[in-house]
Amino acid sequence: MLKVKNLDVVIDKKPILVNVGLEVGDGEIVAVLGPSGSGKSTLLRTIAGLVEPAAGDIEWDGRSIAGTPTHRRNFGLMFQGYALFPHLSVAENVGFGLEVSGHRDISARVEDALASVGLEDFGSRRIESLSGGEQQRVALARTLAPRPDLVMLDEPLGALDRNLRQSLVIDTRRVLEERGVTALVVTHDRDEAIALSDRLALMREGTIVQTGTLDELLANPADDWVAGFIA
To answer: Taking a C-beta distance cutoff of 8 angstroms, is the pair 213, 200 a contact?
Structure first.
């Protein structure tokens, strides 16, 4: 279980996250939903260990991971835009993090991850030969290959057109459920958040305003902004 407690982040003397609290249960998929600039991506990067908090704590399974280096958290973060290496093949992209971490069963993990996203025959392909949807699936496979305890997806479908997103959101949810991962998904798209997640965390101006299922939020919104944002 992930627990974010009273988290503050200040960048260039500007508060980005303010007293953020959030819990994600084992095997649960939570979508952090909010407008652009509300601090969603910063929250993921802080949980991943890429941003140092000014205050608060982050716990995994009851143990504080504050100060734990990124590579020792065993969390997977899929960046917005995918950050694939164009000079490497699909298999080499998926296996890159495994090589850096010194895994011995790289080939087996790469094959397993590619199969899970339906790209089992794509290992030798070049990145530039892939469609936008195929690149998204390669990025997802690369995130899953190390078998992380927590998967974090930052606007995983944001670079794609709407018709393609509608198709891939179903596939992405299926992959996460089949692998039984605990996941945190950031998006500004209401429909995407609902389709991808078990529960929503609404974010505004650097803080989590309310969490719950769609039905819970619709039945009892915390304020007028919540009511309007999810309507």
So the answer is: yes
